[in-house]
Design the sequence.
């Protein structure tokens, strides 16, 4: 049975992403000064070794990371997300690019991934893990659907620590970004949520420890762009 607090959080997240879906891609590219595309490319490059054939993209949003993952030449990519509006935009992209044979998007929650054990060679999560309603359950579910030695890759915002970039980033992230995002999307709450969720996320060594606790080994954290964002990787521990 879903706890009421968890259900409420999920409803709030779904409503928020549904409300900003139309502006999501534009604002991602604009507010990151185009770096989000570079981060995705770097992350996907880290999955090339081993050549995963079946890939799951959790919190796929409008499908940008799933589309980027085609560079791995997999047989199939499946993206799941809890926002139907985001998925609808992703479907439109896939149809326009004629990628329906390779990419499938479904409504799905990280807490209850709708696939059997040991289904996927790799699982990716780009800018979504901090939104998991239950991080422990989400990571355990990812481990469950991965094959033994299957790879997890997480791309997520983090907090710079070095002067003066830390101060510049904090001013931009907590003042300019919410103002521009709120003005364009007409949802100030959504773009105030972004810095709040990044602040609350257990990043770096803390997140690596969680990965190890919930079934992953060979873990690493690679900071990008002075620590604005980080790539986390790990392999499912053999059972």
Sequence:
């Amino acid at each position: 049975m879903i706890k009421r607090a968890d259900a409420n959080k999920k409803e709030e997240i779904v409503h928020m992403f549904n409300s900003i879906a139309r502006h999501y891609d534009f604002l991602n590219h604009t507010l990151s000064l185009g770096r989000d595309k570079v981060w995705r490319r770097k992350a996907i490059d880290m999955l090339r070794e081993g050549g995963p054939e079946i890939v799951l993209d959790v919190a796929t949003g409008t499908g940008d990371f799933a589309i980027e993952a085609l560079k791995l030449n997999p047989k199939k990519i499946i993206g799941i997300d809890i926002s139907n509006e985001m998925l609808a935009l992703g479907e439109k992209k896939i149809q326009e690019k004629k990628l329906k044979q390779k990419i499938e998007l479904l409504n799905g929650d990280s807490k209850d991934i709708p696939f059997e054990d040991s289904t996927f060679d790799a699982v990716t999560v780009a800018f979504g893990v901090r939104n998991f309603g239950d991080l422990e359950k989400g990571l355990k579910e990812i481990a469950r659907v991965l094959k033994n030695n299957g790879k997890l890759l997480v791309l997520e915002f983090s907090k710079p620590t070095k002067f003066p970039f830390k101060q510049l980033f904090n001013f931009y992230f907590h003042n300019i970004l919410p103002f521009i995002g709120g003005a364009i999307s007409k949802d100030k709450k959504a773009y105030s949520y972004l810095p709040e969720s990044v602040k609350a996320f257990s990043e770096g060594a803390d997140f690596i420890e969680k990965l190890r606790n919930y079934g992953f080994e060979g873990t690493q954290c690679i900071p990008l762009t002075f620590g604005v964002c980080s790539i986390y990787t790990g392999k499912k521990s053999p059972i």
Strands lie at 54-58, 76-81, 103-107, 120-126, 146-157, 216-224, 229-236. The chain has a mean pLDDT of 91. Residues 4-159+202-236 form a domain with the Rossmann fold fold (CATH 3.40.50.150).
